[in-house]
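FAQ

Q: What does a record look like?
A: Structure on top, sequence underneath. For example:
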């Protein structure tokens, strides 16, 4: 059994989640339930491997060894049935960085890039920084609050000449695991209109029971030809600081253009990142299975607490990720006032819903990738501030 109920002491480690609250919220003493990383002790095999690599070692130029590729390929085959060939893998320091290079390599300034808000904030920032035009096809709320793609609106936007679509799969922040039929439809539409698909699958290991992640590359033969997949062990095993991510590009022509862009900027991964990815993908399966049980229990605890103590808040069970999308719009507060109430009165750091698009008004994102005790502390403080 692994110790997911033991809270690590992360203050003073330059942790964004724990040490950047002063600059982001004006208060270093908040309960941190915001940034999408976790507070759990890392996989023991990883800690040992990095310690051994650091003893009597040199840190010169490095490259991805065969152990790294074997671990990555085997992991994806076991976890989601995704077939990956070594030559299809392009290493990048981060998923967002990878998306940036894909857009730079395969689209032109002024080109239209489609996203489905509410969605991960860098999906807004990266296209804008590259002088691409953002186009929106918001998700719609279906039964029991389940978010869905509005395929009619999606196709209407594609008809406007969209060059790239950035898919979040599973979806951050709403926790959807897309079904194969949905991915097939997206692939069919994007192929019809000549639209590149960039599928961000960084949360693909964090799937709750009853659901299965379908890689976009497995959606259909069309999907293989028109897409690039971005993946990393960082969310699963909390190794984002080691900067090890990768792109999977099955289409040789697309892969050649992206590789040329990466080589133009001399982009690479550091040796500890390679080692971390190799170790967690090789040795981390049992750890992950226990983590998923703990996270699912955390989500159920949040739903029970909200039902009992915050009945005006809209909440639902996520299908994936360690993030929950909470609706506080019943309180009728402007977003700025709402966030000041969380930070100033409840003393809890959460992500503002409007960071994920206008569709996030009245919402916040709650990170449950921490101990049950810390979640309880934060929720009790929120309940005291907001009342029933």
């Amino acid at each position: 059994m692994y110790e997911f109920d033991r809270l690590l002491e992360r203050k003073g480690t330059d942790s964004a989640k724990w040490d950047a609250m002063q600059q982001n919220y004006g208060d270093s003493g908040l309960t941190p339930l915001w940034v999408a990383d976790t507070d759990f002790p890392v996989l023991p095999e990883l800690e040992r491997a990095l310690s051994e690599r650091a003893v009597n070692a040199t840190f010169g130029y490095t490259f991805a060894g065969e152990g790294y590729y074997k671990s990555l390929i085997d992991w994806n085959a076991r976890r989601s049935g995704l077939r990956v060939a070594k030559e299809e893998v392009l290493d990048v320091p981060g998923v967002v960085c990878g998306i940036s290079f894909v857009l730079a390599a395969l689209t032109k300034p002024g080109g239209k890039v489609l996203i489905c808000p509410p969605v991960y904030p860098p999906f807004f920032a990266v296209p804008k920084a590259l002088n691409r035009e953002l186009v929106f096809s918001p998700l719609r709320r279906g039964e029991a609050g389940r978010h869905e793609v509005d395929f009619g609106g999606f196709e209407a936007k594609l008809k406007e000449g969209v060059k790239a679509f950035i898919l979040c799969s599973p979806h951050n922040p709403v926790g959807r695991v897309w079904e194969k039929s949905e991915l097939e439809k997206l692939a069919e539409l994007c192929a019809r209109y000549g639209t590149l698909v960039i599928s961000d699958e960084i949360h693909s290991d964090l799937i709750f029971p009853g659901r299965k992640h379908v890689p976009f590359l497995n959606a259909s033969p069309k999907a293989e030809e028109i897409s690039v997949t971005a993946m990393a062990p960082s969310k699963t095993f909390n190794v984002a600081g080691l900067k090890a991510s990768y792109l999977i590009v099955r289409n040789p022509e697309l892969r050649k253009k992206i590789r040329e862009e990466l080589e133009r900027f001399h982009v690479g991964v550091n040796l500890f990142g390679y080692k971390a990815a190799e170790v967690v993908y090789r040795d981390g399966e049992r750890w992950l299975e226990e983590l998923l049980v703990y996270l699912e229990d955390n989500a159920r605890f949040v739903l029970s607490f909200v039902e009992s103590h915050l009945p005006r808040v809209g909440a639902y069970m996520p299908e994936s990720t360690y993030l929950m999308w909470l609706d506080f719009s019943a309180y009728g507060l402007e977003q700025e006032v709402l966030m000041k109430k969380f930070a100033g009165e409840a003393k809890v750091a959460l992500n503002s819903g409007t960071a994920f698009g206008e569709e996030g008004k009245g919402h916040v994102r709650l990170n449950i990738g921490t101990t049950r005790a810390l979640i309880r502390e934060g929720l009790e403080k929120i309940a005291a501030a907001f009342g029933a």
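Q: Is there anything notable about this one?
A: The longest strand covers residues 162-168.
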